[in-house]
């Protein structure tokens, strides 16, 4: 296995540019993808947040990168710098992206992508200057291990199949979540829940009455009350200690505000392991609890992000869960109202309502939780309607969390294999790949004893 520079296995390595913002002809009604570094990090980039016009392409030096070009973030705060993605369609980028068109006769672009992922830290260490930016010359001369092309393709196939299964699960979850949201909106926003004859209530002439508090019509017999009327109790978060010491002996995983999106399947969960006092065991999260972020947010993101705990959520973790001091855990009075509360909270959050219930302490935004849940009024459906919704949603959420657990295991296996495949410690036969990716159960078994599925040298 030889070390080769990226320049030696590429057709072209270049960066993009940003067309003049003040020239509307470069941007208005553009339909050509223009990628920025903030989009890099996921394996594939299919589209862009912003678009440029054909006029920009023809009247500036910006160039289209062909499909399967690798793009490395040269600038970016936090984790962005050094991140790499594959541009799956013809795409332009800004000047902070270093774009590498791989020569398919010398290297497999998927193999190079995975190899660069193993060198993330080394790439970041190439950075220079006050702002620690990378430059394209350093990237051109960066060396990676290049075996013969057939071995590259086999290695890439193994890792790609694992990522493909993760992506399938993500797409399934997206569809399931869309189904849930549609059902909630249909039943509890449009009020077309099934009536006694199984027909949509409002559309079939169900009686509606005007509510003065909400200034709109709601179904007859439905109540209006504060969100606090749903809540039985809440429990504060805990941060404990980093290591086992004194009376801090109970090992837990701590869910922070930054972990809530991952808990919901929108990224990774990197909850730190902590140790808490035994007397604080009452803070441990249980099935039926909600975790609500009460401090944090940003100018474009309000506080109040929420996730909830079902049995399958807890099964994703080795340790019991607590939430951090910047979050609050909430338990409801009625189990069957669980998903109604979840979707009502999510609806309000997505609509930006919680921006109006924030205060600031030392520059940090805080959710005025008690004030919000006490004063904000919502429609309270009869328990029979909430129970009907609960029965519909509970098995769907169980499936979503099971898929997330499987993705976690698949990612662990991929990350275990990645460096070992790249340095030749592990050899994988083609049959391993095909057999181990057929069924979900096989995947989970493969993770339990990965060494048994592969031939490990040394």
CATH superfamily of the domain at 223-380: DNA methylase specificity domains
Largest sheet composition: 5 strands, mixed
Give the averaged pLDDT, no decimals.
Answer: 90
Structural classification: alpha+beta
Enumerate how many helices there are, as a single number.
13
Here the CATH topology of the domain at 223-380 equals Adenine-n6-DNA-methyltransferase TaqI, Chain A, domain 2
Strand order of the largest sheet: 2-9-6-7-4
Strand content: 15-25%
* Broad CATH class of the domain at 223-380: Alpha Beta
Considering DSSP H and I runs of 4 or more, what fraction of the residues is helical? 25-40%
Would you kindly provide a written description of the structure presented here, covering whatever features stand out?
This protein has 458 residues and is of the alpha+beta class. Among the domains are: 2-146, Adenine-n6-DNA-methyltransferase TaqI, Chain A, domain 2; 223-380, DNA methylase specificity domains (Adenine-n6-DNA-methyltransferase TaqI, Chain A, domain 2), CATH 3.90.220.20. The chain is 34% helix and 23% strand. It contains 13 helices and 26 strands. The strands form 9 sheets. A 5-stranded mixed β-sheet has the order 2-9-6-7-4. A 4-stranded antiparallel β-sheet has the order 14-21-17-19. The chain has a 3-stranded mixed β-sheet with strand order 5-3-8. Helix 2 (109-118) crosses helix 5 (149-189), helix 5 (149-189) runs antiparallel to helix 10 (383-422) and helix 10 (383-422) crosses helix 12 (440-448). The longest helix is centred in the middle third of the chain and has 41 residues, at 149-189. The relative contact order is 0.10. The model is unreliable at 432-437 and 439-458 (pLDDT under 50).
